[in-house]
Amino acid sequence: MHRPRSVRDADVAGKRVLVRVDFNVPLEGARVADDTRIRAALPTLELLLERGAAELVLCFHLGRPKGPDPAFSIDPVRARLRELVPDPKVRLLENTRFDPREKANDPAFAAELAAHGDLYVNDAFGSAHRAHASTEGVARLLPAYAGLLLERELAELGALLESPERPFVAVVGGAKVEDKIGVLESLAGRADRLLVGGKMAEEREALAPLGEKLVLPVDAVAAAAFEADAEAREVAVDDVPAGWLGLDIGPRTREAFAAEIAGARTVFWNGPMGVFEWPRFAAGTRAIAEAVAVCGGHTVVGGGDSVRAVDELGLAGRIDWVSTGGGASLELLEGKELPGVVAIPAA
Q1: Would residue 304 show up in a list of annotated catalytic residues for this protein?
Q2: Active-site residue, 182 included
Q3: Where are the alpha helices (DSSP H) in 86-233?
Q4: Which is the catalytic residue, given 63, 182, 327, 335?
Q5: Of residues 304, 308, 318, 336, which has the active-site annotation?
Q6: Distance between CA atoms of 45 and 229, rounded to whole angstroms?
Q7: Tell me: the pLDDT tens digits for 139-150?
Q8: Does the active-site annotation cover 327?
Q9: DSSP readout, 223-278?
Q10: Within 13 A of 61's CA, how many CA atoms are on the CB side?
Q11: Nearest Cα residue to 15 out of 51, 48, 53, 67
Q12: How far is Cα 340 from Cα 137, in angstroms, rounded to an integer?
C-alpha cells in the first residue's frame, strides 16, 4: 500500500497552503447539521497555523450539484468553521463541483486551484478514491503531502490489511453482494471470521465461494411488506413465509454475532444488519454496534450507515477508529490504491 509523505515533514512557514478537506456535511437550511467531518480536519489546520503558514486555502465539494446552485453554497460551512477556527488566515473556496471540470480532473481547473497555494495538503480521505482535479490533479502540480486525518485513516485501515491482531472478525452488511464483492473477497482472505448480515446475506450461492470463515444468519425478522409498520415475526431463515421480506437479523443471529465479536482482538464493521432506519427492524444493527463498542480488541467502523448507527446510539466514542470514508474505505480494504493518495509522493 502506498504510504504518502506527511504534512509533519512539510516546511510551511510563510507559505500559502492549499488544503483539500472533506467538508461534505449534512445541512439543515442555513446551518451545518453535523460538523463531525469539519472537526476531523482541525488537527491538520491547527498544525499548519502553528507552524507559521501564511494562509490556508481550503477546497472541497458539498453535495452533488449539477452546476452553480445556491442550495449547495458553502456559506453554512464557512460560518461553522469560523466558529471553530476564528483565524483570518483561513479562507474557503466555493464548492468545487460548481465547476464541471472538477470531476473531469481537467488540468486547467487543477492549475487554477494550484494557483492558490505554494504547496498542497490532502486531508480528504473520504474523497481520495476519486481522481478529481482537487484530489489528484493538484497533487501533480504542487509539492504534495498527506494531512493528519488522511495519514491516520491509511494507518488504521492499512493495519487491517497488513497486521491485524488475531482473531480478526469482519462484519459486513448491506443490500447486494455485487456492491461489496471485492471487499468481501479481500476480507475473507484476511479475517478469521466474516460475519455477513443485511439483505446480501440471502444471496447464499454468491457468498459460498468465500469459504468456511463465512458466518451467515440463522434467523431473521421477517415482514409482510417493505413498510415500517408491516406485520412482522421472528423466523428461521429457511422459514420466511412466501412473499415476506427479511428486514433484520433475528435474536439467535444477534447473539451468535455478538459472541464472535466479543472474542476478537480486531474488529472491522461496515454496513447495517437490516433496515435500521425503522425502529422495529433496528435491533440487529444496534446489537452489532453495542457488541463492537464493548469489545476489548481494536475496533474500526467504516461506511456511512455504520457510522450513522454508532453516532445515533452514542457509541462513537467507544470505537477505536470511526472512518470518515465510505467508498474510500471499501476500495482501500479491497486492495485498491486510491488516486488521491498515490498522487502524493511516498514518504
Answers
A1: yes
A2: no
A3: 107-114, 148-162, 177-188, 204-207
A4: 327
A5: 304
A6: 47
A7: 999 999 999 999
A8: yes
A9: ESSSSTT--EEEEEGGGPPTT-EEEEE-HHHHHHHHHHHHT-SEEEEES-SS-TTS
A10: 23
A11: 53
A12: 9
List phi, psi (to 5°) of 124.
-105, 75
Confidence of residue 115 (pLDDT cuts 50, 70, 90): very high
CB 202 within 8 A of CB 289: no
Indicate if 180 belongs to the active site. Answer: no
Sheet with 219-223, side-by-side order of all strands: 232-236, 219-223, 245-249
Q: How far apart are CA 335 and CA 194, in angstroms?
A: 17
H/E element, 90: strand 90-92
For residue 169, which amino acid is it? V
Q: What is the structure's pLDDT at 228?
A: 96
Cell of 217: 444468519
Spatial strand order in the sheet of 321-322? 214-215, 193-196, 168-172, 266-270, 298-301, 321-322
Residue 211: other Cβ atoms inside 10 A: 10
Instruction: Note the pLDDT tens digit of each residue in 284-343.
Output: 999 999 999 999 999 999 877 888 899 999 999 999 999 988 889 999 999 999 999 999
The residue whose grid cell reads 467531518 is 37
Q: Are the C-beta atoms of residues 135 and 340 closer than 8 Å to each other? A: yes
What gap in Å lies between CA 320 and CA 13, rounded to an integer? 33
From the candidates 14, 176, 211, 314, give the one annotated as an active-site residue: 176
Q: Which of 334, 335, 344, 332 is nearest to 129 (CA)?
A: 332
Residues 199, 175 contacting (CB under 8 angstroms):
yes
The three grid cell numbers given for residue 270, joined into one nine-digit string: 461496515
Give 230's Cβ-side CA count (13 Å radius): 18
pTM score:
0.91
Please identify which of the residues 20, 37, 101, 254 carries the catalytic annotation: 37
Rounded distance between C-alpha atoms, residue 338 and residue 129, angstroms: 5
- Would you give the DSSP letter of residue 167? S
